[in-house]
Amino acid sequence: MPVTVNMTLAVKRLIRDAAAKLPELAHIRSTRILVVAGEARRASRATIRPAHFKETRGRRSGAGHRKPLVQVRGRKILYVITLRPLWFLSSTPEERIATILHELYHVSTRFDGTLHRARRHSQMPRATYNRRVRALRDRYLSRADAELLAPFAHSGTVRARMWLERPAGAYREGEYQGRRVYTEKQLFLGLMPMRASPGRPRRRRAE
What we know:
Residues 11-117 form the Putative phage metallopeptidase domain. It comes from Anaeromyxobacter paludicola. The protein has five helices and eleven strands; from the N terminus they run βαββββββααααββββ. By secondary structure, the protein is α/β, with parallel strands linked by helices. It has one domain (5-194). The strands form four sheets. It has a three-stranded mixed β-sheet. A three-stranded mixed β-sheet has the order 2-7-3. A three-stranded mixed β-sheet has the order 6-5-10, with no helix packed on it. Helix 1 crosses helix 3.
């Protein structure tokens, strides 16, 4: 029986490698990022969700709201990247990699569970943002190993982490009776179809 590609693990490896190769992402720590597959959201291929409020840089806002705590293997998760169906079924390998870099570029350089204020789409024209991400992608693909890039050209069924019970959004203290802490017990490894679209990641040039 063929071994099924663990796509969320492949993305985590790419995140770690991109942080090591791209100075703009050197602040990223893959161990504090959770990667899951999730439901469709309009035409989005992926989204990133910070653990903290931008005003307080903590799970509690100044207005009395809280965000749930996500911990995996005892380690607090600061960002959750959700891969959407379009990422799996309607993207080229280069687009998949660019999407991951796109989400990482939103992360605050403090890596404190918030997003970079100047790199929000509301603050930076989308064309400018996309141009910077394309430059990151091209530089990364020129340096990355073919073996690490290969899963993003896969066609067939892949494994991916998914929520068995998805965390709630921000809630008001004293009014919310649901779960406040989410761990690996609320995650499972499910199956996702993945379609190889035309185009393949470029391999690193021999030096």
